[in-house]
């Protein structure tokens, strides 16, 4: 138990906060008020540790990581915090004594959803591991007024509802007005000559005030509390008579608007670059504020800016924070008067870049017209970085214009952010072994040849504290009963479970727990979707963002195929199956939204057909998010990880399922490769083209889906049902676009870009193997236990230790109270 916690003190604190915040006693309080009072009481518990942690960092003059990310998909803080100071049973008791149920209180918290999907959630897992391992780190991001939209399904269609997560205030955050910082946009650059030297000054600009809010990141049982710092924007000189008089009325209003719009909303695209001006403003806004603050903080306790990199490291979470490179250069050149070479050495020793995708539509490229207008001084610096880099290319590859064309930072009227991130830092990493190899050998081949020493792999991980300890209390207790609790901070220890995999009693216990978790999910589905599902059926789950490369479409086409088989033969011998989907589509991604409609249309027909004896059910869970994800992973039998090989950089959902004892049905893509390596191919269901095969086809201009359409009757039958009104009698043309995308005909893309028809037969075979395998309960239980037992590699603690060893070089800190 953490030293800061005492049950009676905690109870008093809840009562005190209830009175102080709401002017109420506990028996008058609503559940929402109770949640707030408990959250404030939690803050009371950790506040001294939070202060002590930062005192200790200062005292030891530690090197600090700044994890720069547009997204932090934190999920609820309350339950996780209570677990971190190891007082869950006590808090539960206190609440019971006050007449409340802890789960119901946790349910009152809005999910802070300042992220889209994998990339944002990875950032959140990393912060958890950093604090638990005791490493000095800040998460730096944006305090979006509206996070990831809430998804409603109406008539089978996705409807987006604004996520007003700050509506009732967020009790865990603290506003730090004392660190407010000005960020400048637009205007022009003036050259000032001072004692023989040129200085560059931005004039005629608009600016906003960046105001940070801090959230505590609580380490597990170690008194360490790190900080997630997210920036809000405020108008700088709220418009005064003064500026009105000077005729600056227009500008004052504009600045007011800029502040309001800049942090208004998270862009809901994942793996897709949209090129919106406001997005670039968001990027520079939080980066300028974070970098300015990091430099100031460093200079408060040091006198030599040249050694900045010895005490600071910036990790760029994808290219979105890449303006950190020219922004640090700007501060060093313009504010500290360093020479270019001095500034460049510091910058390139401070910055490191993580790549999360090879999808070409995700590559960030800003038109120089827009970039230079918004960030005139930054653009000059980028031009100079580019000029010097092009010179270097020419030296290394004399006369090779092709190399310049491919690697230049500014080219074809665009600033290429990935190239800038690679050149401006000392490290480039991919997020799974296969992904990093593809970067080195295909996408970033030229850079790898020129600077191989920068490239390294860091296979992603997840925090077992949230995704097992908090999300799956039954399994978590069972594991601890069998092997002790060391797995909580040392996941590879969970391998000790392997010896129980063959034990019939343990198998039974494991399957009972899985069953209870399925009952819990069934209850959730009944409550939220009004659909009855049978917890004795196989729970086959695909939850993740909706994207064509992730191939939810292949999954539902297979369901349509199975349904046809059942209609032909209602006595078909199959284990009842519940196909569970959960996915948000980017608001402007039409085909993804149509796929959601298709899934719901198929569900509607199948779930209401009594003739198939309930052998298949299809459920689309509304509003997939971190809080219901925890319930879903715990209840899954089958984990669908079926992306087109080479497209999913890593995946992290795959790891969460494995940790909860689901078997992977997947392609050899991303981290699936390493999952199979750990658990053994015999304990997973692998199918489909390999990444080499996909890449070869792509080089040759694709394959011919029409051949499959011609020769495979079952596939043809399914595809025809997309256009004959089978699932949309009122509008037979509804799914025409999906049909066309597979076969092609008119669209500009290659037909079946993601090899869905190509992989469908082998996917169907793998599904059959699952049906057979599940009938042998003992085999299944053994394989499931072995999945849990072999998940040790996939803790984000391991990932962080590798980043620390190879990139960040941080020292562990002990915090005593
Ligand atoms: O990052 C995901 C990858 O798809 C997944 O394979 C990997 O496991 C995960 C963590 O490394 N990428 C991802 O989630 N990307 C985004 O969410 C994203 C968001 C916005 C933009 C691009 C990508 N954007 O350009 O606006």
TrEMBL record:
PROSITE patterns: PHOSPHORYLASE. The keyword Glycosyltransferase applies. One of its GO terms (molecular function) is pyridoxal phosphate binding. It is an enzyme of class 2 (transferase). Pfam families: Phosphorylase (PF00343). Its EC number is 2.4.1.1. GO terms for biological process: glycogen catabolic process. Phosphorylase is an important allosteric enzyme in carbohydrate metabolism. Enzymes from different sources differ in their regulatory mechanisms and in their natural substrates. However, all known phosphorylases share catalytic and structural properties. This is Alpha-1,4 glucan phosphorylase. It comes from Lacrimispora xylanisolvens. The lineage of its organism: Bacteria, Bacillati, Bacillota, Clostridia, Lachnospirales.
